Amino acid sequence: MACTAPAWASGDAATNEIVVTAQRSGAPMWTIETARGTIVLVGEIQAVPKATPWFPDQLEEATAASDRVILGVKAKFSPGDLFRIIFAGGKITRLPKDTLARDYLDETRQRRLGALEQKYEKDYSRSSFLMTSFDLLARRLGFTRDTGKDASDVVEKAARKAKVPTEPVGTMRGEDMLDSLAEAAPTTHLTCLDAAMTATEIGPELIARRGADWRAYDVPAVMANPLEQALGQCWPWADQSVGGELRGQWITAINRAAQLDGVTLAVAPLRVLAEPDGVLDRLETQGLVISGPEWRLAGSPSLPTAPDKPAIQ
Questions:
Q1: Beta pairing, strands 29-33 & 37-44
Q2: Which residues lie across from 39 on neighbouring strands?
Q3: Nearest to 209 by CA among 224, 188, 189
Q4: pLDDT digits over 264-312, tens only?
Q5: d(CA 168, CA 151)
Q6: Which pTM value belongs to this model?
Q7: What is the dihedral of CA 38, 291, 232, 302, to 10 degrees?
Q8: Cα dihedral sign for 216, 220, 224, 227?
Q9: Cβ distance 192 to 129 under 8 Å?
Q10: What torsion, rounded to 10 degrees, do the Cα atoms 238, 271, 36, 69 define?
Q11: Quick one: how many helices (H) and strands (E) in the chain?
Q12: Which residue, 81, 59, 82, 79, is CA-closest to 71?
């Protein structure tokens, strides 16, 4: 571990005020102390319910006072990618020609899906399993209804208004993302379908519980919520190539920010930060000092810190 105290811990009042203000927003976050400054990592969940009491104005204020901001991955789409969407649309939204959902589902899955079709008067027999999963989560469970501000939107707008330098954590080519999605076999989305059906079967109480646990900094409870698990089991996060690259870009960006002076404020998906062997676990193995709410389930072992690799200076 590096023994050099970070600026805000050694009495930098301005930096300390940024950190405290950000924490007052109510969003779970972690501070990473480096020899040259402080990184504030905000753990974002998608579609925060309006009923979840948090204070975006405090996050706006902290953003305006920060030296730089890091946001999520930016997808780069070319004109050719638009044609890819048109021609691959059927591959993405429908099952392969002359096949039906029952051709891929075992008896248990078919029974569960049939019960949901009957309940919601919806026919999923030709829909791709990914589209079926999205429909179950967004329209039937309704997790995208009655939502408030997400942390990334708050920070992006505040940074733009205050002219704080902002950059995406990385970029992904639209061609790669679309090819990954269009070429995936239907069976690769069965885990996503299982998780989406589980969340939908339990019902909308999952939405309020997820928001309340997020606001209470109970990160393990958020990660264990069947809705959050379903979102993490679906594309792009479940795709080994795309999801793996997204996670790697966060590690690289934070390591780069640790070399800079001042305060870096970053907004990352909570599941990317707190999942086993996720960003927080990997940063901890580097010897970085991380302060904030517990992100691992009680009893989960910490990953070993490399004894011969000092913290970033």
A1: antiparallel
A2: 32, 264
A3: 224
A4: 999 999 999 999 988 999 899 988 889 999 999 865 555 444 334 333 3
A5: 14
A6: 0.85
A7: 130
A8: positive
A9: yes
A10: 90
A11: 14, 8
A12: 59
SS3 269: strand
Residue 311 tokens read as 């913290």
Other beta carbons less than 10 A from residue 244's beta carbon: 11
What order of strands is seen across the sheet that includes strand 166-168?
166-168, 68-71, 262-269, 37-44, 29-33, 289-291
Residues 233, 191 contacting (CB under 8 angstroms): yes
Q: Which amino acid is at 277?
A: D
* Secondary structure E strands in the chain: 29-33, 37-44, 68-71, 74-76, 166-168, 171-173, 262-269, 289-291
Collapsed DSSP state (helix, strand, coil) of residue 28: coil
How remote is the C-alpha of 134 from its chain's centroid? 16
Supply 89's token pair. 């649309």
DSSP string, 54-71: --HHHHHHHHHHSSEEEE
